[in-house]
Specification:
With 204 residues, this protein is mainly α. The chain contains eight helices and no strands. Helix 2 runs antiparallel to helix 3 and helix 6 crosses helix 7. The longest helix is centred in the last third of the chain and has 25 residues.
Length: 204
């Protein structure tokens, strides 16, 4: 909830169009570059797509895109697929993070208490554990979480089929990038901002 001393920000129509279209425009650019015979050059665009998807997903979680509640829910579902995630599972753990930041029942913030070595080696498995924690925290969203997980499986199947049938690496290469970005989230979305940034202005 916004402080009464800080005016709430709202997006103008042009800003809303940019925010809503950015990850999808980047995804189109990625596909075009990759399919034009430059899959290696397309990889930075894939990384940019993932980061833009993360921003959109986060804004949809907080319903700050100027849409209806149903509209934010749809954007959350779609943008999370670009990161191979269940958007509503992330919403459950992220809102818990804001409610009990770095406390005993803040699974998203747990890596901030770990050593750097543990973050690097256990972080990818923590991402999987968050799916379980999301079901515990928000059982009323379980149906959406399961459907979104099945949608991710479908997306992966399409990418694998495209590679198997036509030799296109576009889908599987993007999935590899998305998986790496997602697996590293405990480092760049939890450990660095909560553990390093407060003590290092350059990192912040």
């Amino acid at each position: 909830m916004a402080s009464p001393d800080v005016p709430a920000l709202s997006l103008r129509a042009a800003q809303r169009i940019v925010e809503l279209s950015r990850p999808w425009a980047l995804m189109i650019a990625y596909v075009v570059v990759s399919e034009s015979g430059h899959p290696v050059l397309a990889l930075p665009v894939a990384v940019a797509t993932c980061l833009a998807a993360f921003v959109q997903m986060h804004d949809a979680i907080h319903e700050s895109l100027g849409l209806s509640r149903r509209g934010h829910s749809l954007v959350l579902t779609l943008s999370a697929q670009l990161l191979l995630k269940s958007g509503h599972a992330l919403k459950a753990t992220h809102l818990r993070h804001h409610g009990k930041c770095l406390g005993g029942d803040d699974p998203e913030g747990a890596p901030a208490h770990w050593s750097l070595g543990r973050v690097l080696f256990a972080g990818p498995f923590h991402i999987l554990a968050l799916r379980r924690e999301a079901l515990r925290i928000a059982p009323r969203l379980a149906r959406k979480q399961v459907l979104e997980t099945l949608a991710t499986v479908f997306v992966v199947a399409i990418a694998v089929a495209a590679y198997s049938l036509w030799g296109s690496v576009t889908g599987v290469a993007y999935l590899a990038v998305a998986a790496l970005v997602s697996a590293a989230m405990p480092l760049w979305a939890s450990y660095i901002p909560h553990r390093l940034a407060p003590r290092a202005p350059a990192v912040r």
